[in-house]
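Shall we go through a protein fold together, starting from nothing but its sequence? Label the sequence line and the structure token line clearly, so we can match residues to local backbone shapes. Would you write everything just below, so we can both look at the same thing?
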Amino acid sequence: MFTYKRPDKKYIRVFAAPSDPNPYQEMLAKDLVRRGVHTDICDLRRKQLLTPWKFEHDILHLHWLSCLYNASNYIKTIMNSRILIYFIRCLKKRKISVLVTMHNVVPHYRKYPEVDAYVRRLMSREADGIIFHDEHARNDFMHKFGNISGKQFVVPHAVYPESLVPLPSRELARHYFRIPPEPLCALFLGQARKKKGYDYILSALDSFQKKGIHVVFAARGADSRQRNMAWKANITFLPYFVPNYEMPVLFSAVDVVLLPYRSCTTSGLAVLSVGFGRPFVSSKLAPLLRLCSAGLGVSCDVENPIEFADHVLLAGDMVHNPRYVRGRNKFLEEHSLDRVAADTFEIYARLVNR
């Protein structure tokens, strides 16, 4: 075990913000402990932002920016964004490093796009480092918000350890969620939002039903009209946040994952799908097409219900394909948590010792 200590014999102290139901920060922090990194995962409160001289960590690692400044109206959002930038500039004057992981080049849900652009342009200048999950995201960010030459890093999205556990039997998993035992089953997981292509699946339900495809909607945020459509169709509806302990059961119950996104930078669900060994069907977006080219999924015109349904059937036959097995094994090796944590640690050490 290698433990990094600074010249003053203390561990690297990282403040990761904001806290989030997504387990990504927590799993990274747990692996970094053995490398000599102590991480506090917390929200940045207004009182903290206005008292930067009390900040006691070595590094501020920001993961999702928009929730740090979005407010109920435009004026408050502008004020919050300026307070955030003020806080970051004060930390830099105190020689405290600021690192940002751009999980998304732009937020999933843009309440005030001009404020999002303002914050990202300033981050491209103010942050000591910006992490992207692939080259495409880095190039896209620089195209939109300016050159960040010399301080950008590419660190892939790690595979979630929860997705590598042994899965229960398909029969037991389907019984648990009351899913019919026979049909091919496709999963939509996440927020029932237009950006996620939830409406494309609703439009394709008749075609899915004709092809014998059962759909599981593990989706929060569906309105009553969408729920009514869902109950009439060949689907199982789980209108709640699926906890981590249910994830292996859920993925064991399904055959294919649906990613009909309108836009994305990096899909944590695609990574989760590969970890659990479930092929996906996606729209034709660059980050997803790269995974498809590795044999991990198929892309199609998700606006065409018949084509969408046909590709779900195609993906359902992929899991035992040697190309899928090889592609998945390679992906798991390149995106292992140990490898990603090692890359992240190197960035922390570089920032602390600069």
Observations:
- The radius of gyration is 21 Å.
- Residues 74-93 form the longest helix (20 residues).
- The domain at 12-158+336-352 is CATH 3.40.50.2000 (Rossmann fold).
- The mean pLDDT is 87.
